[in-house]
Amino acid sequence: MHTALVNRTARLLAGFAVVIALKGAQTDACALLSPEVIHRTTGEQVANTKATSQTAGKVQQSQCFYTLPTFTNSISVTLTGPAGVRRDAAREMWERWFHHGQAGDAREKDRDRGEAESEEEEAAASAVPVSGVGDEAFWVHSFVGNLYVRKGNRFLRISLGGKMNDDERQMKARALAADALRRLH
Is 56 a member of any domain? Predict the structure, then answer.
């Protein structure tokens, strides 16, 4: 009798631990970069941060906008991860955006049905692989530079503006991503 009660209690506690781990897995994007690393990388102090978050379908996004004194040098960090217990939803989004094959076939079908690509999917078509950051990374240049970095079933987008060339922007984004990945739990 005592053993059965202990076993049931252990299973119940293990179940709670899984639920707590799943709920706690999403990190606040504003906690991913330290003001010191931003200052060291950009030469400017963080003037303000603004956090936003949203859940869209099967993914949850946490975004932080780090305002710098030179506004055009400000930084945006978005963390995308699974919403709920479906642990591979963000990974599937990543695959759809950055890998062609089956996901590319699905995009073609969506276009055939008249469904527009998202801004990210369109930008990802010109993505350049970046080695040595996270599990996988891509650089996308638009009017700003965007470094997308996947780590496990979540991914970051670090966006940098400012008056610098693309190589400088990518170097700074890589330094910020390294700091963010250390803080990502």
Answer: yes
Structure tokens at 62: 């946490």
Number of domains observed in the structure of the chain:
1
CB 43 within 8 A of CB 21: no
pTM of the predicted protein model: 0.76
Closest CA to 66 of 162, 183, 184, 163: 162
What's 43's domain CATH number? 3.40.1000
Give yes or no for residue 8 having a pLDDT over 50: no
pLDDT digits (tens, 9 = 90+) for 84-142: 766 778 888 899 888 864 444 544 544 444 544 566 666 667 789 999 999 999 999 87
- Asked if residue 7 is part of any domain, the answer here is no
- Domain span at residue 60 reads 27-183
| Cβ-Cβ contacts under 8 Å for 82 (sequence gap 6 or more) | 25, 58, 59, 60, 88, 89, 90, 91, 153, 154
